Each structure stands twice: as C-alpha cells, then as structure tokens.
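User: Continuing from earlier, I have the next pair ready.

Assistant: Great, send them over.

User: Here they are, in order.

Assistant: Folding the first of the pair now:
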Amino acid sequence: MNIYHIWCDLKAGEDDLGFVAAATAYLDELKARGAMVAYRITRRKLGLAPSHLREFHLMLEFDNLAQLDDAFALAAERSDPIEGFHRAVNQQVAGIEFALYRDFPDAVRVETGLQA
C-alpha cells in the first residue's frame, strides 16, 4: 500500500467543516473512479504535533504507483467534475506539505538474507 500524506492549514476565515465536506466529495469521487483505495481526514488535537506539521492531515491510500498516477492524471485533466472538486478544496488551503510512504516490508521487497 502506498500512502500519500497531505498536511495543510486553512486560509483565515475558512470553515473547517466546509473544508472537510469539499475534501470528502473530491476524495469520494476519486475512490468511485477506482483511482484510490481509501482515505482518512484527521485534524490535530490539543495542539499536539511537531511545530512544522499543519492543522489537517489527509492520508490517501493507493494499491500501487500506477493507481496514484491515475489519480494525478484525473486532476491534471482539469475537467469537471474532478476540477470543481479539486478547486473547492484548494481554494481553502493556506499551507500544504506532501509525503509518500509505503507499507514496509511490502510485496515487492526481495528477501536477500542480508540485514540492512
């Protein structure tokens, strides 16, 4: 499983529940099209996080990098309905950071008998 992490803050005055509704609509559409397996939307609690991490944390799960590429291709088309969903999320976001992680060890790992 490949997990695409997104950390973001909202622009001043943006509604937190409105952001979550827009993100859910966008991610549900990607999932319905088979371009993503699952996702989670979380929010920092009690201010407990390193100072460089942002208020919201979204985790998007993909079976493989080809599926992730399919999701990016849908966004890159810039056609509705995906473009409208994408725009509704992005217009609310102030700061944003990304990371890509994978389950480890994953299915492609070859056992060599050596400790790394």
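And the other member of the pair:
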Amino acid sequence: MSDQVSFGYKDVDASEKTALVGEVFSNVAAKYDIMNDAMSGGMHRLWKDRFVRRVKPQPGEAILDMAGGTGDIAFRMAARGADVTVSDINQEMLDVGIERAMERGIDGLVWSRQNAEELGFSSRTFDAYTIAFGIRNVTHIDRALAEAHRVLKHGGRFYCLEFSTTEWPGFKDVYDLYSHRLMPKLGKLIAGDEDSYRYLAESIRRFPRMPEFEGMIRAAGFARTKVEPILGGAVAIHSGWKL
C-alpha cells in the first residue's frame, strides 16, 4: 500500500505532498507577510518575539532556522548576535527573505535551500534549531524531528512555534469559524488565492494536538521537553534538549 499523508483534509500519497505544499508557498510567498498581519491581527509578531525570547540566542551561537522563509525569526536572532542559517524547501520564500534582508541592511545570514527531512548539514553542527509555523507542512514530521536532533550539538536545544488546537471551549468555536470561513476569504481578497489559505487552515486541524506532538519530540530523542500554550493552545511553543 502507498504511504498516505494529510494535505489539508485530503489524504494524498506521500510522494506528492512536498510538491503540493511547495505550490502553496510559491503561490503565497509574495503576500505572505501581509497575510500574516491580516490573519492574526498583527499578533504573529508578538508570538515570534516571545518565541525568540524562549530560544535565548547568544552571540556567536550557530542556529539553524528551518522553514525560515521570509526571515522573521532569523532577523530577530541575528539582532542578538547569533550566527543564523536560514533554510527553507521553497526558493520563492527564501528569495523574499533575502530581499527583505537587503532592504533592512541585515548582513551575515546564510541562506540555504533545504528539505527538513534530509538536511545537508553535518551532524552536531548547530547550538539551536528553530522552526516557526513550518513543521505541520512537512511530509514526515518524525523524519524532520530526527534530522533536527542529528544536526544539533550535545546540549543543543530545539524550539518549535506552531499552530495547534485551542482548549478554550468558547474561543475554539470562534476560531474554527474564522479558520474555515474567513481565512480563505481573506486569502482571496488580499493574495488572490483562496485555495492555498484553505489548505493552511485545514493543515492546522490535521496537526497533532500538543501532548501528541510533544510525544513525537521525545521519540526523536529529545529530553526535558516542554509545551507553552498561547491562546489556550491555538499557538504553542514546543521545546526540547539534546542531552
């Protein structure tokens, strides 16, 4: 039997998902940051600030920011003196990030097209691995987590910022309505792409709940795992250490 994985609410052959997700992000790359502001009311900036405070990047540390696309997390970590490698499987997203870095006069970042499931870096290379709003789009999450563990040095830390399922009963209903009804319409209005944003909303619902994902992080070899819910779990910061 073929390996079936989720693509939004559909199940597709695993060999097809990477290309399908790639098409989504190629479609949304140019308007990605504008849409993030529109969809979150600007709150994604606060979530990313909080995320980077948890990572605690230090001057001279080697950090891999996977699915780093447009550079939002990398810019924040570089401002604290870290040596950041920005990786993404999608070249269009990287191109947007490179252009934004040039506009801001941010030098010193390394930009590298990479598949999270098959990283081209040597083992024990990085002090920290970050991934923000990207791991739910990976075809095989367990392989991406295993690769994150492999490329980290002993004592290295893993941090993931991702949408999840809120546990606040009243807010959950409102959030579900917004995700499935309004998010695709915003995508059509602002980015001219309803289908891609429908997929992004659906992919959140198919992503493992917080305890399950924490279990996957532990299964990849990480210790001292932790989950920090935001908005009752609508967004969560997951972390773990390679010990």
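Worth noting for the second one:
The mean pLDDT is 87. Strands lie at 4-7, 10-13, 62-66, 83-88, 110-113, 126-132, 152-163, 223-230, 235-241.
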